[in-house]
Amino acid sequence: MKSPQIDTSGTERAQRAIAEAQAAANNLHKNFQADLKTENMTQVVAGGGAEAATPESPPKRRRPGGGLSSQLGINV
Known about the structure:
Layout lengths: L8 H25 L16 H4 L14 H5 L4
């Protein structure tokens, strides 16, 4: 007589989910323990202004003609 097959796929999936949740919890705990006080510190230069931060660029010019109104023959 054959012994009945027992479906353990649900148990295996549950164990895999528990292992993934534990790994995520360990990663979260490790991230909370990290000291971020010195990370991403801004460098402030005294006396600086907006002019110093943006490079000068030439003014943009519009090209004459070639728009939709000229293609459709609409005169404004």
